[in-house]
TrEMBL record:
Domain Glucose-6-phosphate dehydrogenase NAD-binding, chain residue ranges per copy: 10-192
Organism name: Teretinema zuelzerae
UniProt record, GO biological process: glucose metabolic process; pentose-phosphate shunt, oxidative branch
Listed name of the protein: Glucose-6-phosphate 1-dehydrogenase
Family statement drawn from the similarity comment of this UniProt entry: Belongs to the glucose-6-phosphate dehydrogenase family.
GN (gene name): zwf
One CC-aspect GO term: cytosol
Length: 500
């Protein structure tokens, strides 16, 4: 990777959970890999009278920090970190931040790029961005001193609020300076989806409804909401994961090949496919969507009548000639049996048409299928399930798997997603960030589902903690004559230790 231009990274919310678990470890990793530019500086914003040494202590106490064993790097990070004490909702305290940025630039002897990371509650965005847009903080001259803004989700709570947020920000800074973080997109395994699809004619030529019958996207977590009631209640699985990460994954799995791999071309194709994804028709919402809650959620949150879904499943379609008739199933949930994120593309004799004929002839001949699984996490890799002749005199076939597992890739060193986010923010590469149009397209897909779920007679199912999810989600997919795949297969499972 190339070296970066000198930058001041300003982290609003440096004492928060995101900073502790992700941003500080990411900075540690970038410094360890020698990827931070020579005169790089960090300015943390807090209202707690925090000192740089408190922040470094926080890093050392984090899960990643406990594994880090390099006092030199922590010492270096402490030296390049300064803290500005300010209350974000009080306009006059921004002068202190402006002074600190000027002081650092005076020390460097020239203007520096500024990267503002908003790791703060979304309710503070309007105030903070309004103040940041003022001249003394919002210095921007292409190639000389560029200011960019890294924004965390949620990008609105519905289509209307997302539209407002996007237009307010664009008015202040312009879309090209806004970097909306979807850290899933920065995962190595997700970046590989396009390379894998478009570099392999074996799959690329068959990537359509003539060969593919359906696609399944699964993101299950084994943990529950872990005490984050204030964040999760009212948010739910649909807004938290489907609206952002999972529709982005589906878009990467189904978009057309971009003309080039430049950011603008990739976003153009992604926006096109997202605009073509359709939610179920209003009258089919009960058959084609499922919302559910894990059994202990209400007790855990103390909200006895909560309707917040911790599980969501939905059947979508794509209105293009390539994907006509191919159902796209997305499901996600918390407190499930295992933690898995993956996309499974199902190649079937007869492609999409096989689904209708399979239902018509339920007792008919067995339909041949190959499952291609792109495993995002854990046990990252790609696996193809095939049938081969069982060795021996028998004519029977048996299932086998061809796989590529990242853990076996020589020299493979996984760049953590947040390190990638910070790195790309510093170099101004927007490829792995969500555009405003992508965010709005995702809301257009999810909002009709959320509206249907608001209806008082819409069912909320319950599932046992540690189970594979609600039966209703199995029934949703079984109506098409198929079943979820993840529950019965393994990808890149680490080998068991052998005792010789
Ligand atoms: N945590 C995650 O894994 C995660 C994942 C994706 C997105 N996000 C998003 O990232 C953002 C931050 O999340 P978080 O989990 O880190 O939240 P958090 O733990 O509640 O931290 C929020 C930070 O905001 C600061 N803050 C709050 N009110 C302030 C005020 N009036 N003036 C100055 N500072 C204020 C706090 O700083 P002081 O108390 O030091 O002043 C604190 O450091 C949120 O928008 C969240 O939705 C978080």
């Amino acid at each position: 990777m190339k070296k970066l231009k000198n930058t001041i990274l300003v982290i609003f919310g440096i004492t928060g959970d995101l900073s502790k678990r992700k941003l500080l470890p990411a900075l540690y990793n970038l410094e360890r890999a020698g990827l931070l530019p020579e005169g790089f500086r960090i300015v943390g914003v807090s209202r707690k009278g925090t000192e740089p040494r408190d922040i470094i202590r926080m890093l050392k106490q984090s899960e990643a920090g406990k594994q880090a064993d390099c006092p030199d790097i922590c010492e270096k990070l402490e030296k390049i970190l300064s803290i500005v004490d300010m209350k974000l909702d009080e306009g006059d305290t921004y002068a202190g931040l402006s002074r600190e940025l000027s002081r650092i630039e005076a020390e460097a002897g020239r203007p520096l790029n500024r990267l503002f990371y908003l790791a703060i509650p979304a309710s503070l965005f309007p105030k903070v961005t309004e103040r940041l847009a003022e001249a003394d903080l919002n210095m921007h001259e292409n190639g000389i001193c560029e200011s960019r803004y890294l924004i965390e989700k949620p990008f609105g709570a519905d289509l209307a609020s997302a539209k407002k947020l996007i237009s307010d920000l664009n008015e202040r800074f312009g879309e090209e300076r806004i970097f909306r973080i979807d850290h899933y997109l920065a995962k190595e395994t997700v970046q590989n989806i396009l390379s894998f699809r478009f570099s392999n004619p074996l799959f690329n030529g068959a990537w359509n409804n003539r060969h593919i019958s359906h696609i399944m996207v699964t993101a299950s977590e084994s943990i529950g909401i872990e005490g984050r009631t204030a964040f999760y209640e009212g948010m739910g699985a649909m807004r938290d994961l489907v609206q952002s990460h999972l529709l982005q994954l589906l878009a990467l799995a189904t978009m057309e090949k971009p003309k080039t791999m430049e950011a603008a071309e990739i976003h153009r194709e992604k926006e096109k496919i997202l605009a073509a994804i359709r939610p179920p028709e209003p009258e089919r919402m009960k058959e084609e969507t499922v919302r559910a809650q894990y059994r202990t959620y209400r007790k855990e949150t103390g909200i006895a009548d909560s309707l917040t879904e911790t599980y969501a499943a939905v059947r979508l379609s794509i209105d293009t000639p390539e994907w006509k008739g191919v159902p796209m199933f997305i499901r996600t949930g918390k407190a499930l049996k295992e933690k898995v994120t993956e996309i499974t593309v199902v190649f079937t004799e007869g492609g999409a048409e096989s689904l209708t004929s399979a239902r018509a002839d339920a007792a008919g001949a067995e339909i041949k299928r190959n499952y291609l699984t792109l495993r995002i996490q854990p046990n990252e890799g790609i696996a193809v399930d095939l049938d081969i002749k069982k060795p021996g005199l028998d004519e029977a076939t048996q299932a086998v798997q061809l796989d590529f597992c990242y853990r076996d890739a020589p020299g493979f060193e996984q760049i953590d997603a947040y390190a990638r986010v910070l790195y790309d923010g510093m170099r101004g590469d927007r490829t792995l960030f969500a555009t405003g149009d992508e965010v709005l397209a995702c809301w257009r897909i999810t909002e009709p589902v959320l509206r249907a779920w608001d209806s008082p007679d819409f069912p909320l199912h319950f599932y046992d903690n540690g189970s594979a999810g609600p039966e209703a989600a199995d029934e949703l997919i079984q109506k098409t004559g198929i079943a979820w795949f993840t529950d019965s297969h393994q990808v890149c499972t680490p080998p068991k230790p052998s005792f010789r």
